[in-house]
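Teaching note: in complex prediction, the entire set of molecules is handled at once rather than each chain in isolation. The prompt given to students was simply: 'Predict the structure of this complex.' The entities are:
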Amino acid sequence: MSAVSGVRAQAESARAAAQVLAQLDGATRRAGVRAMADAILADRDAILAANAEDLAAAAALGTGGALLDRLRLDAARLDAIAAGVRAVAELPDPVGAVTRRERRPNGIEVERVRIPLGVIAMIYEARPNVTADAAALCFFAGNAALLRGGSEARASNRALAAALRAALVAQGLPADTVALLADTGREAMVELLALTDLIDLAIPRGGPGLIRFVAEHARVPVIRHYQGVCHLFVDASADLDLALALLIDGKTTRPAVCNALETLLVHADCAKAFLPRAAAALAQRGVEVRACAASRALVPEWGAAQESDFGTEFLDRILAVRVLPDLDAAITHIRRHGSDHTEVIATRDAQAASRFERELRSAVIMVNASSRFSDGGELGLGAEIGVSTTRLHAYGPMGAEALTIERYVVRGTGQVRHPPGA
Amino acid sequence: MSAVSGVRAQAESARAAAQVLAQLDGATRRAGVRAMADAILADRDAILAANAEDLAAAAALGTGGALLDRLRLDAARLDAIAAGVRAVAELPDPVGAVTRRERRPNGIEVERVRIPLGVIAMIYEARPNVTADAAALCFFAGNAALLRGGSEARASNRALAAALRAALVAQGLPADTVALLADTGREAMVELLALTDLIDLAIPRGGPGLIRFVAEHARVPVIRHYQGVCHLFVDASADLDLALALLIDGKTTRPAVCNALETLLVHADCAKAFLPRAAAALAQRGVEVRACAASRALVPEWGAAQESDFGTEFLDRILAVRVLPDLDAAITHIRRHGSDHTEVIATRDAQAASRFERELRSAVIMVNASSRFSDGGELGLGAEIGVSTTRLHAYGPMGAEALTIERYVVRGTGQVRHPPGA
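The expected output is the structure of the full assembly:
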């Protein structure tokens, strides 16, 4: 068959757009991002109508409440999405930033300069806000985004992408700066993930099934945004009021997100003082606890944990609890059961904090602060495309800068490595 | 089968070593690297005897001169390898470096801190010096290295690795900081490349066949060290003496390395003045030229280029030459035929230099400087594990810092994201 497939043709269009984007100055990109935000508000009715279609189709399939909620857009959520896009235009421009400059003894000047990655394939599930967030952040960093959202959000994603593309065209920018993969079948995704000559990075963001699928089929570089099995360790020296505040904030303020706590580990020396207080606060907030035998000896009303509960991302009002003899046991537990996302220690012992930091390899370590700060906005990135659990290129919350790469630019006056006669 | 395979067992040992290495201070790692350098010199006789074995086996197989030369060690080359290892101990320590520090409005202190990547699988071909270079650089950055060298260098690599491991053990460090993959078959390599729970990064360094094989089978993250199809563009405004010096240095001082020039592109306006001079200088140095019709009209003795000569990494005294009407045509040519490694422009026109930089996406751009500076040592990294042509994590020459990743460490005093009652 000599015809170019639809997937390859779309990737080639994205590559052509990326070549244009790599040469735009920051002011042009900022104006483009603002136009994208305006377009989301201007197309509000069409986007909400499309979303209503998706919701009706999902309800007809018997989709559950949590997924329906992630799928749902309303006026307030659209306002928030537009505001998030607009905020991207206020970030420092990562493109062209000189990160290092050195004159070598032979007189050549060596610079490291940030350039865009190129074409980013974003593969994600239900939430339509990712369509706008990813498109804005990729574009601001000078990249083209080829988006493959979940089938349950198809109409919403189409309406959003249509608004964003029209806004770009009106600014004289390539429409294919942002594109939805037209064919949403699994075979098209496999084809996309093999286009090593056209796709510079694939970012899968979703549940274990999606991540596994992408990891198995990708030939292009991948940065996973995998699950957060986040731990809180309450050290023997912890301020227990502080530890309780971290527990409640981490577990109950938004249980369905990746920086929510899933497991509480408690030093045996403070278990008796801490666990009954924790039990009362958790019960009051409707949290189901699955606990080890030592915990249940102190709080008999808690259910028994299975081994598999440790390492599970519940994304719900469920918490696994275990009492451990010391910091070493906590570190060993987290290394075995964690997902390298975010771990919290409550302690007044600087040495314990330092060991927790050095001996764990997770992307984010929190000392006496809530796991819920493991987020690009909270950590000062301004916006995030997600939280990387891949230990390469970007680890933890990923902002605009992580969508660029440093290259070398060398300026000389004719220097050669082996001068004739030398 | 319940037994753990040999490959998995080796990777698990490397992971265990990496956990120890991640906690070592810089002084301990520096001392370990110096001990590795000493061991190479102390074991000189055993290493050279092993190398003689490899050379004899290769000669018996009818291996050609260039490959034999890359395989050969002698006293001077071993001295150079030991000196290269020793130089690593003098580099700035990338581990623990704080790259950003910010206090957020809520009082949390956010740091980005460099930590080791973990376990690095290095997959390479003939040159045994890579065994020592990669081991030293990986270890200095706090990583364990699992090495899979070419079968033609098996005895040399074993002797080198034995020396390095003994030196580490004598320093109280884990032997498996450095290990050769025991099973050098292709199936073992495929198994290694699928160990996503144990291997943090695979670095293939070699020819197209090796790179393709790794890209096809890897499930772990990969940074390719692929070929360098490096271009020199001589702009209309170029100083022709300078351009000629860059051409001779780039093409003739070491044609078999990846930062050597492979293609000369010449602006039509200076072709008549430049090409006959280039022809004389190249002929004097035994370089075969494969040229376009416009070039051959000026230098009739040059052979005719096939289209496939553009984009070929000759690694030999062969050069492809093409005359082009302008800078745009040069940029288009390089985008189509280049390998994203290193491109050089000779020009006196600042705007042409700027466009060459902005419109090309190669890892290294040289303005009026030789392509042969595209090397970690020359660009100020002190040492390099190779030159990445993967546009993620590290792009271009890769030093010790590129073997680490930034993570977040947050210190608070009990801050939560949603304070009760707020």
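Point out the following to students. Chain B has a mean pLDDT of 94. The longest strand of chain B covers residues 404-415.
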